[in-house]
Amino acid sequence: MKFGVYTAILHDRPLPEALAVIHDLGLDAAEINVGGFLPPVHMPTIDEILTSDTARDDYLGLFAEAGVELAGLNANGNPLHPDPHIGPPTLADIDRAIRVAHRLGQTRVVTMSGLPGAGAEAAVPTWIVNPWESSLLDILDDQWARAVPVWRDLDRLAADHGVRIAIEMHPHNLVFNPATLERLIDAADAESIGAEMDPSHLFWQGIDPLAAIDHLGERVVHAAAKDVRINPAAAIHGVLDDRHTRFTGDRITRIRGDAAISRWPAESAWDFVALGRGHDQAFWDRFVAALHDVDPDMAVHIEHEDEDLGRIEGLETAAEVLLTARDHVR
């Protein structure tokens, strides 16, 4: 298996320095952002890599020199967003990510399914969470009808380039749990779409990530190491806690570039935390072992979004847990 870092948290430094951080943590792999919500800070020469063997070889040489393997590209975003300034460019980023992955000898591109609006004239996405009213089912069916052709085309492109698309099951997307992932795969008749197993968004939905891995089996093709802590406030506000407020500041810069992210409640129902701060070492041992059973070559990358820990402190905390889990499957 490969154990590394999704390097968006290290966009404050150039790629060679980010790779040095990963190496010093005792990890051996990196997942690089190439578009979507965030700019391709650690791959600014995508167009050159697509056309120049020299540019490609120079880029891969940075990883060889650092002793860290490139193990996946990331283009998380909303390719179905109805805003023409967001949806089509994101879709183009995913298309380009698949092509540049092929050039770099990569077989995994991480992204999200996306989410359309409630109707062809909508200006913003609409997430139908519990469609027990038939009118909501009608909206949801229409959203799926518009999404499937897009994903059928992306699946074919990925198959042509020897790439698997690893979809993060994420809120505010059509695919947010195993059932919706399977719906997309089946509806698109997809052969190259699978799951990025990020347990964080499964935890707060009440889904057992270990049961999800067992259920999806070989449809799990990539993984993120990210924890969630369920707080006492969940007893009052539930996991769909909506007490967020508008926010502009460092969190936006760190997580989503220029995207508008709201401020988390002070006493939230749940929080993203570094590994071990939400679930104990025993869970992460079982998580890594379950991934190993699916694919002994699985890549697992730390995604750091713990607001209470700095960039390096959070990575150090998560790496200690992840490396301990790695040792248990050797």
Summarize the helices and strands and which ones pair or pack:
Blueprint: E1 2-6, H1 15-24, E2 29-33, H2 46-51, H3 53-66, E3 69-74, H4 87-103, E4 108-111, H5 134-160, E5 164-168, H6 178-187, E6 193-197, H7 199-203, H8 209-216, E7 220-225, E8 227-230, H9 234-237, H10 250-255, E9 270-273, H11 281-294, E10 299-302, H12 311-328
Parallel strand pairs: 1-2, 1-10, 2-3, 3-4, 4-5, 5-6, 6-7, 7-10
Antiparallel strand pairs: 8-9
In brief:
The protein is an alpha/beta fold and 330 residues long.
Describe the structure.
- This protein has 330 residues and is α/β, with parallel strands linked by helices.
- 42% of the residues lie in helices and 15% in strands.
- The strands form two sheets. It has an eight-stranded parallel β-barrel, surrounded by eight helices.
- Helix 1 (15-24) links the parallel strand 1 (2-6) and strand 2 (29-33).
- Helix 8 packs parallel to helix 11 and helix 11 packs across helix 12.
- The longest helix has 27 residues, at 134-160.
- It is globular and about 55 Å long.
- Residues 250-259 have low confidence and may be disordered.
